[in-house]
Specification:
Helices cover 42% and strands 12% of the residues. It is an alpha/beta fold and 300 residues long. The chain has a single domain, classed as Arginase, Chain A. α9 (248-264) links the parallel β7 (226-230) and β8 (269-272). α8 runs parallel beside α9 (248-264) and α9 (248-264) packs parallel to α10 (281-299). The radius of gyration is 17 Å and the shape is globular. InterPro entries: HDAC_classIV, HDACs, His_deacetylse_dom, His_deacetylse_dom_sf, Ureohydrolase_dom_sf. Belongs to the histone deacetylase family. Pfam families: Hist_deacetyl. One of its GO terms (biological process) is epigenetic regulation of gene expression.
Length: 300
């Protein structure tokens, strides 16, 4: 059974005209339930991640400041969020959701988090709507519990996974692969194990061919026994922040390629949602929903 992490408290008291589309975290599960892609039995509500797991990835000084709501105004601006207890509680719930997903993926082949993909969080700071890094926390959990030996991070958000790259730059058991817009945020990139920077207006054909070639090569050379997939849909041509020219069908085929390769090679996979900022909210929901539809079709 496909298990999906979801907490119903994702709608936060954000300022008017805030750019982060929080409502997609409420609308997406409703859409998936309405159309029958999932039922209530597929959903689970995670708890909150422990301090011990957070400190496998993040510096204690940073975590204490975040927990105590003691970040400086500059640090708060960098995250893009107001700093309050609701935001921090949301973040640590997302972290636990991805950790719990790892167990379901080991059981069933795949599990998914309706949130997460917080790849701009570094060991010592947050950035870009990311306070803590769920992929890194869950990966370090797997390694510490000896549930995985070699992890591949497939980050296909339009923005480079700079925080994840920094966290794992000296960790040979985690291979970080980021395919992103070369001219997009962050202006200064970190070094992933493999970075592919795409030109503005990259189309479906080039994108899918490039991904297919590189991902197959990585499975051969890295030989991972676990995959984390950051499945942001801000690669869409309709995305206000994306600068690529990927169609909704192209985004769906991207997901199919990743999920089918994991399934065919029997590699457990956890998918986190990532970004999506299209002006038409339906583009965001449909593109994200396709990832879940494909997971059901391919794995179950």
């Amino acid at each position: 059974m496909l298990k999906v992490a979801w907490t119903e408290s994702y709608v936060l008291p954000l300022p008017p005209n805030h750019r982060f589309p929080m409502s997609k975290y409420e609308i997406l599960p409703q859409q998936l339930l309405h159309e029958g892609t999932i039922t209530a039995a597929n959903l689970f509500h995670p708890g909150q991640v422990s301090k011990e797991l957070i400190l496998l990835t993040h510096e204690e000084t940073y975590w204490n400041k975040l927990r105590d709501l003691a970040l400086t105004p500059k640090e708060i601006r960098r995250t893009g969020f107001p700093l309050n207890a609701e935001v921090v509680n949301r973040e640590i719930t997302i972290m636990q959701g991805t950790v719990e997903c790892t167990h379901f993926a080991l059981q069933h082949g795949i599990a998914m988090n309706i949130a997460g993909g917080t790849h701009h969080a570094f060991t010592d700071r947050g950035e870009g709507f990311c306070l803590l890094n769920d992929i890194a926390i869950a990966a370090n959990y797997l390694l510490s519990e000896k549930l995985a030996k070699k992890i591949l991070v497939v980050d296909l958000d339009v923005h480079q996974g700079n925080g994840t790259a920094q966290i794992f730059r000296n960790e040979p058991r985690v291979f970080t692969f980021s395919m992103h817009g070369a001219n997009n945020y962050p202006l200064v990139k970190e070094n992933s194990d493999l970075d592919i920077g795409l030109a503005d207006f990259t189309d479906d054909t080039f994108y899918l061919r490039t991904l297919d070639t590189n991902l197959k090569n990585l499975l051969d050379t890295v030989q991972p026994d676990f995959i984390f997939y950051q499945s942001g849909v801000d690669i869409l041509a309709t995305d206000t922040l994306g600068r690529l020219s990927i169609s909704r069908e192209g985004c769906k085929q991207r997901d199919r390629l990743v999920l089918e390769l994991a399934h065919r090679n029997k590699i457990p996979l956890v998918a986190s949602m990532g970004g999506g900022y299209s002006a038409d909210f339906r583009d965001i929901i449909e593109a994200h929903a396709n990832t879940y539809r494909l997971a059901q079709q391919i794995f179950f």
